[in-house]
Amino acid sequence: MVRTQIYLTERQRNELAAIAKMAGKKQSEIIREAIDLFIDQASRSRREAILNKAAGMWRDRTDLPNFKALRAEWNRN
Fold it and tell me: Which domain covers residue 42, as residue numbers?
């Protein structure tokens, strides 16, 4: 692990201490769990944005074969 220092507001510090006490965990564990959740959420959002951007990217291309016709031909055999 890498040591990192952060500044928290008084409210953040108090809420974090309360959450850690209720969970029976150290504050550092709670912070790492929260960061992991944030990273997972950001990764999903980023992947979704990339997929949405890619959707239909070949729609207006005229240099590609007619895939529906090719698929219909393959299904006949």
Answer: 26-53
